[in-house]
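[SOLVED] Need 3D model of a two-part complex

Original post:
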Amino acid sequence: MIPATFDYIRAGSVEEAVAALTEHGDEAKLLAGGHSLLPLMKLRLASPEVLIDLGRVDALRGVCELDDGRLSIGAMTAHQDVIDNDLVRQHCGVLADVTRQVGDAQVRHRGTIGGALAHGDAASDLPAALLALDGTVVVQGPSGQREIAAADLFVDYLATSISDDEVITEVRVPKFDGSWGWNYQKFSRVAQAWAIVGSLGLVKRSNGNVEEARVGLTHMGTVPLRATAVEQALAGAAIDGIADAAEHAAEGTSAPTDLNATSEFREHLARVLTKRALTAAAG
Amino acid sequence: MTALDTPPTLNVGVTRLRKEDAHLVTGRSNWTDNITLTGLLHVALVRSPMAHAKVSNVDVSAALEQPGVVAAFTGADLADNWAGGLPCAWPVTPDMKSPTHLPLATDEVRYVGDAVAVVVARTRPQAVDATEHVVVDYEPLPAVVDMEAALADGSPLADTSLDTNKSFTWQKIDGEIDDAFDGAAHVTTRRFINQRLIPTAIEPRSVVCAPPRETRETTLWSATQVPHILRLMLALTCGVPEHELRVVAPDVGGGFGSKLNVYAEEAICLVLARKLGKPVKWTETRSEGYQATIHGRDQIQDVSLAFNEDNTIRGMRVELHADMGAYLQLVTPGIPILGAFMFNSIYKMDALSFTCHGVFTNKTPTDAYRGAGRPEATYAIERLIDEAANELGVEPFELRERNWIKHEEFPYTTIAGIEYDSGNYEAATAKAREIFGYDDLRAEQAQRRGSGDPVQLGIGISTFTEMCGLAPSRVLGSLSYGAGGWEHASVRMLPSGKVEVITGTSPHGQGHVTSWSQIAADALGVAYEDVEVRHGDTNVAHKGMDTYGSRSLVVGGYAVQVACDKVVAKAKKVAAHLLEAAEDDIEFSGGTFSVSGSPDANTTIQDISLAVFAAHDYPEDMEPSLDSDATVDPENFSYPHGTHLCATEVDTETGRVTIRRYVAVDDVGKVINPQIVDGQVHGGLAQGIAQALYEEAVYDSEGNLTTGSLLDYYVPSAADLPHFETDRTETPATSNPLGVKGVGEAGTIASTPAVINAVVDALRHLGVNDMPMPASPRNVWEALQAANNGGAA
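Solution:
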């Protein structure tokens, strides 16, 4: 469709973007890869008066290691560049594996990690992944930078704790060494669609037992969720306890009903997919 | 036939790379939306957001004030421009109700997407922006959504100008149907739902119209399958003299029946261009098209089969409710009627009763969608045969074979009264079973059932036939169809020996240019590269019935062959004259005419073409021209058939269905271009599998289309589909000299029941005996839950 008329500002730097956001307030939206925002604008479900394009802010692209041992991924790094990045592959392969399941090849070459997280869609893959990885985002606003933990980032349906005048500059994730295994079970109607339910399981193995387990759930509520009951049931447990633990996967969720699934079916899928994800992660 | 009994087939039957593809895959295509003209204006429509409402006032005055806006009109403003409503060319019964369907509604809107006003502006965004300034006062009326409720006493009306929601009841009874059921040893009865589908051609609909300039001619370009039908119907609807209207179908990117129509936007653009004296363009967006382009299927099917003790079929009862939507489009009511001849399929029986109720609802009109009535019928009979086999305790193949027409029984007049000219169901089935490894897969299925594997294996069978090659004109007349089913071709021999073929068919992806070139090259004995095929412009192809119903090759290719034969016959006369021999002594082979017994005395068709152009020396009893026309009217439909086998793996924990094997053995008669046939089968399978597993147009109780975009309407991609294993048997059709049957729809018709039969077969032992389409994870899981809870699914 045809979006409503808007003004376009190309930001040359993060500071310029912040200044433009400050000037235009909630009439402005940041344009990253455009794969969430532009469809909404074409459907006229969103009609921002000003678009601030971050596409030329090269400082927001790339991956580096931080002094504290974490990885920093520039917010405008395209999904495919995350997948292909050697540091990500070596130290946070789980992020590469989840990102590989985002959209299709075209989306992965245009869409960005920062854009996907800023959109905050509980049905998209990266929010639940960041939550399960205990990642953070760094945002910059008029009064400087702050770091927001994933657990504090997603506050409601398509709503984050990022202010209207802030820009995500970095995504930070911890390293996961060889004692960790992971698996993302994305369950969708067709190959290129949002997940009806997704479950990301991470397992840290120790002497044949589960030392630590983490589960991130996609599309099981208005925000991405951790299946904390499963994680608690598995902490220190034997690997063959996964099936029983996964029975708790839907606890504390508020799964929506739509054409693809009733909330009851989603809860069932969360249990099945969590069992499969954790079993594969522990294997 | 050609002049020799066994013409050389240098091209026919051989894969030739498609002549069409180079420009299509290198961005040089000429889609309607690519056309730009000096001073072009852009059209945007204001569409009803309500399924049913009185329109008390439409005010375009604020829209006229918007930047770039040139004009804006309400339905009332344009009402005097219509010589009639949009046409329905198939009044299936004398008392059929067909509400007046104006291109722009005036006082009542009847589905979400019904257009009420139009804005014309200098740019498309300006036109779209200005539509938001058109003020429409809607007074909501109850929306009629459910077909059966629509026919109940006291139902609200989908159209308040009518006194009923029933458009027609059409009935056909052959044989003694009551006797067939009264004396039956067993009766299998089911209700199947053939869900509503959205055709989703890759190219959206688009219209450009240029008003008269130096001549009186108005030119309308449209992404249409039917430029010739469109020209006539628009002339009638808009009161434009037919000879002053030129319709062009440029490159058209898929249709599947959705572009076999006469649409409001085509009429509106024609009227606007003439009214404003400026060229105008309208192109639908995908979500606009999902509302305003016809939908397909949407039938409730109540079907019963009566059997003898020996498992032979006595008779079949069919009662359909077919959703017309809010209006009757070009052939809407005829679609379910086409199925009336196909429910008996390949099976012999003594009685068949078919009743169809056409029902109005406040939804997008339905019309032809790939297969058009035949997929629905085939789904019902092939599902029902499987259910009957289960109830009777016989192998599904055994029950089919017990009842199908044996190859030695052709030609065979079916209980529905049509004559299947040829077929060999035994051969296609044997081949499919062998490729599929049927017995091995049955063994694996038993093993998985025994071990309680969470992923169960199912095998689905579809031994289908269909009727296509629309169609014998007299038969269409007997069905009250508004036109004939002939087709036209012209062949022009150019002085240089090159050939122009003009066809009345209108390709939109099928590869007619390639296939027609192959036919003409062999018939005339010229090089494939020396043939060009022209189509789709009523100024070039002056006569035609266009492309739908797998008719183009069967009827249009036939016309090309006959026109070529006429050219050869004329050239032979000239050859005899120039070679100073008796015509009877002239032999024609591979483009060369020679004198029998004197091979050195010869000339080529190219030399003759030049000689006739020069016209210095030619027979006195003929005109100096080899050019020929042919208009052919087939004596029968054609009847492709085949056996399709599908193996599905069904994850009983998640409800996910995965197709593991799909084997399609099709008998489409003689094959002109094997690669094109394979392509048609692949695409057909994709669309049939899409109905089985993915696609469904869903309306809520208010009549809103909740699957209004590709976000919610799941069209599968290659990534979702299996590797297709295709093969063929070849039983030539006898009703055309090429022996061809048509292949455009076969894959779609065959595959939907093959897949659902496989899904049900995988879960039968768990108590599942039916599966609503699409067999989505949710529907499969819910069927399993219902079976677990003791209820029949």
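Edit: DSSP finds 21 helices and 28 strands in chain B.
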